Amino acid sequence: MNGSLGRFQDDFVEALYQHPAGELAALATQPGFAVYRNTVLKGCVDALCDNFPAVERLVGRGWLEGAAALYARQAPPTDARLVLYGEGFADFLGAFEPARPLPYLAEVARLDRLWLEAFAAEQEPALGLAELAGMTASDLSRCRLRPRACVRWRWFAGQPIYSLWRHNRQALALPEELPWHGEGALLVGSAAGVAWQPLEIGGCAFLDACAAGHDLDRASTLALQAQPDLDFTALLGRLLAAAAFAPLILPH
C-alpha cells in the first residue's frame, strides 16, 4: 500500500511538470489539473525571482518571470526549501539565447546564488586572532586554515561582476564610468545575515588553496603566484576580521 501510494505521489509530481505517466496521463488532461500545475509553476517562478534579486533588477520582473518559467519546467525543485531553488539557474542563463546581449548576467546570477548558499549554510565557530598568538612562524606555516561552511568566494575574470552585483543588489545607481576588469567577491553568512566585500584574485586563490587542504605556507605561495604584488599580511588580517576561517587544524 505504501509503495503504491509513493509511486502515485511521484507520478503526480511528474505530471505537474508536464511528464505524466501511467494512470496520471489521463488525469493530467483534465482542465482542473491545470490549476495544480499553474500553482506549482507560479511558486517556482516566484522563488527564483526572490532568490535572484540582482538579476531581476538588471532585466526586469517580466523578463525574469519568463526565463524562470522555462527553467522551472526543465529543472523542477528537488528540495522543499525553495530558498535553495535555482542551483543551476546561472548555467541556464549562460546558455539562454535572450540573455546573449547581457554576457555578465549569468555571473551576476552566480553571486546571487553564492549569497543564498552563505545565508543558508550551517553556522560554526570562527577562528580568532587570539588562537594564533604565541605560535612560532614554523608552526603557523604548517597549520591549515579551513574556510567556514558559511563562506563563499569567487573570482570573475574580465568583468566587474562584483560591482554590477552589489549596485543592483542594493538598488544603487551604477557609476557613469565603470572600469571593465576582473573582480572577486567574498561573502560570509552569519545570524545577522550575509556580509560581503571585494576580494582580489590572490585572496580568491588563497581561499581556494585553503579549501583544498593546503597548509598556510603552500596556500600563501599559490596566492602570491596568482597575484605577485599581493600584501599577504593585510589579506590574512582582512579574512580573519571577516570570520572567514574555522578554528585551526593543527599539524600532527
What does this structure look like?
This protein has a three-stranded antiparallel sheet with strand order 1-2-3, with helices on both faces. It has twelve helices and three strands. α4 (53-59) crosses α9. The protein has two domains: 31-120; 122-252, Outer Surface Protein A, domain 3, CATH 3.90.930. It has helices spanning 2-16, 24-27, 33-51, 53-59, 61-74, 89-94, 105-120, 137-142, 161-169, 201-211, 216-226, 232-241; strands at 151-156, 183-190, 193-198.
The CATH topology of the largest domain turns out to be Outer Surface Protein A, domain 3
With strands numbered from the N-terminus, the spatial order across the biggest sheet is 1-2-3
Averaging pLDDT over every residue, what do you get?
Answer: 88
Task: Provide the CATH top-level class of the largest domain.
Answer: Alpha Beta
Total of domains: 2
Q: How far apart are the first and last residues' alpha carbons, in Å?
A: 55 Å
Whole-number radius of gyration? 22 Å
* Amount of helix: 40-55%
Percent range for β-strand residues? 5-15%
Class derived from helix and strand content:
mainly alpha
CATH architecture of the largest domain: Alpha-Beta Complex
Keywords:
252 residues; mainly alpha; DNA-binding; 51% helix; Outer Surface Protein A, domain 3; globular
Summarize the SSE layout with pairings.
Blueprint (H helix, E strand, L loop, with lengths): L1 H15 L7 H4 L5 H19 L1 H7 L1 H14 L14 H6 L10 H16 L16 H6 L8 E6 L4 H9 L13 E8 L2 E6 L2 H11 L4 H11 L5 H10 L11
Helix pairs in contact: 3-5, 4-5, 4-7, 4-9, 7-9, 10-11
Pfam families: DUF2063
InterPro entries: DUF2063
Keywords: DNA-binding
